[in-house]
Model the fold of this input.
Amino acid sequence: MTIHARRDVPALPDLVFNAAADPSRLASWLPGPHEVVGRTDDVLILREGGSEDEGQRQVQLAADYDQLLLTWEPLADEGCRGELRVSLAGAAGSVAELTVDGCPDEQFAARFLEALANEVEQNLTAG
Done:
């Protein structure tokens, strides 16, 4: 099932996109029950759920900084795939749009965008 979510963020698109596209930053704010347990430049190793007994999945990230488009694909046949696009809204705001497919959690897209907006507002636009 494909789910689409949208969220306004009171920050410039580059700030919003960089918070999502940088694997180390993404690992710090990714909403539960997902947890980053390992990463390279373009692959995240995720664990879903709070238990170490839960399975791990690898997803490959692809960031297009010119288009402000972040995509991720599972390296196995199954798993959640997604596309995040950030665009300018007004003079100093952004719209983050997320489309996910294959995610069993119907609220993941909304939680992801909420966590991204909180990260940007708390850590990148303060002061």
Observations:
- The first helix runs from residue 13 to 21.
- The mean pLDDT is 88.
- The CA atoms of residues 44 and 59 lie 5 Å apart.
- The helical segments are 13-21, 23-29, 108-123.
